[in-house]
Amino acid sequence: MALVSRRSLVVGMAGFAAAPAVAATGPAMPRRPAVRAEWAPAAVPAGAQVPVAWEGDFPLWVRSAHTGEEVRIPPVVGGRYHGGNMIRLNWVLRDFRAGQAVQMDPVMYVLLLHLHRFVKPSVPVTINSGYRSEATNARLVREGAVRNSFHLRGQAVDFTIAGVPVDYLVEAVRWLGVGGCGHYDRFVHADSGHRRFWDGRKPQDVDGKPAD
């Protein structure tokens, strides 16, 4: 059982993959299937089978917006999470201020795989924030972050994809229905918590936003 059909994703997102330049708005999202697979829990051992149908070992290309480091490797190999590759991905998504990395929730990597492959695989997914240490999060709280952030547990990423409107990425994340999604001016927040949405551009919008 797949989270979404490959055909429906291709129909809805192929425009970005094919076009050298992206228009201000993206193609309309296809209708989400009524039945979807369960995502993996946060603690997934290396070698565990991926609970989402995935054909081939497609590489995930991520780049840190802060350090410029990049890695382009598949977190899923032969239908299973690859421990060594996830370690390398975890390092790019580390707290660069503290020099600390943790095992990110593999759900986030599968989410990024879907977005990267079907939205625009010709450029990396730029990570603005992955894991955050307690010290870093406390510092960011003064800038508007929340204290009980999913970033502290390795269950959240803030990201962009060059040439793809943030509005479209927000719709894509919400359509996949993984967990929380926050819409900010220059990036998208996605996490593997309970499903909710908030508009970070509007301070008064607290639609189920206990943590980001």
Structure description:
This protein is α+β, with helices and mostly antiparallel strands. It has one domain: 2-Layer Sandwich (Muramoyl-pentapeptide Carboxypeptidase, domain 2), CATH 3.30.1380. The chain is built from 5 helices and 9 strands; from the N terminus they run H-E-E-E-E-H-H-E-H-E-H-E-E-E. The protein has helices at residues 6-18, 83-92, 106-119, 134-141, 166-176; strands at 60-64, 70-73, 76-77, 80-81, 125-129, 156-161, 180-183, 188-191, 196-199. The strands form 2 sheets. A 7-stranded mixed beta sheet has the order 2-1-5-6-8-7-9. Strands 3-4 form a two-stranded antiparallel sheet. Strand 7 (180-183) and strand 8 form a beta hairpin. The radius of gyration is 16 Å and the shape is globular. The model is unreliable at 1-53 (pLDDT under 50).
CATH class: Alpha Beta
Gap between N and C termini: 30 Å
Structural class by SSE content: alpha+beta
Oligomer: single chain
**CATH fold topology:** Muramoyl-pentapeptide Carboxypeptidase, domain 2
Count of individual domains: 1
How many DSSP-defined strands? 9
Helix content: 25-40%
* Name of the CATH architecture: 2-Layer Sandwich
User: What is the H/E string?
Assistant: HEEEEHHEHEHEEE
The neighbouring-strand order within the major sheet is 2-1-5-6-8-7-9
- Approximate shape: globular
Number of helices: 5
The radius of gyration computed from the alpha-carbon positions, rounded to a whole number of angstroms, is 16 Å
